Amino acid sequence: MHSTQSTAMSPLASLAGIATLLAAGSAFANDDFETQLKSYAEVPSVSSTASGRFKASIDRKSASIRYELSYRDLQGEVRQAHIHLGQKGVNGAIMVFLCQTATNPDPTGLAPQCVQSGSVQGVLQAANVGAAAAAQGIAAMEFEEMADAIRAGVAYVNVHSSTFPGGELRGQLRED
Q1: Residue-wise over 52-77: b if at least 16 C-beta within 10 A, else e?
Q2: Are strands 78-85 and 94-99 parallel, antiparallel or unpaired?
Q3: pLDDT at residue 16 greater than cutoff 60
Q4: Do residues 120 and 114 lie in contact, with contact meaning Cβ atoms separated by under 8 Å?
Q5: What phi and psi, each to the nearest 5 degrees, are found at residue 138?
Q6: What is the DSSP letter of 50?
Q7: For 68-92, how does the pLDDT look when each residue is reduced to its tens digit (9 = 90+)?
């Protein structure tokens, strides 16, 4: 007596296979973020005519974030810009520099130079993640933890100036 095996899949097995493929595909999807930067979002709030915008895309496959930061009309000279770990209304530690100046250099040395007015673009990877947020659980090089904080809405962009060293513009990151 010969035993034959069927190669046809049951409907349940087919659905499980499709679900697995969809889940695998979503692991390679990008997460896009955009926020307007405003002085009144600073903690504490400041009054400034400055404005800005931050756009970013987290690429899960390459473990990188492509971003564009633009701002104008700062009341003082730009000093630096970062992504911080902190929920809305709370100040937190710096996770990565978005741009640097000679006055306030990026400890990793990887951030582009800030412009006084206009935009800067860059790509963030594990090497960009500094040690400043270690006390909040995100150590140097921990890219996924930083990306998880951004996805969770507990990260914000901050542009600092000479007039407002604590920050002149701020925007909370949330999924677009």
Answers
A1: bbbbbebbeeeebbbbebbbeebeee
A2: antiparallel
A3: no
A4: yes
A5: -115, 100
A6: -
A7: 999 999 999 999 999 999 999 999 9
The C-alpha atoms of residue 71 and residue 86 are separated, in whole angstroms, by 21
Q: Are 58 and 150 in contact (CB under 8 A)?
A: yes
To which residue do tokens 């006390």 refer? 135
Q: Tokens 């970013």 appear where?
A: 56
Quickly list H helices, 33-175: 143-151
In this prediction the pTM is 0.83
Q: Rounded distance, CA 154 to CA 86, Å?
A: 5
- For 146-165, the pLDDT digits (tens) are 999 999 999 999 999 999 99
Question: Residues near 42 by Cβ (< 8 Å), separated by ≥ 6?
Answer: 158, 164, 166, 167, 168, 169, 170
The label of the residue with tokens 């046809």 reads 8
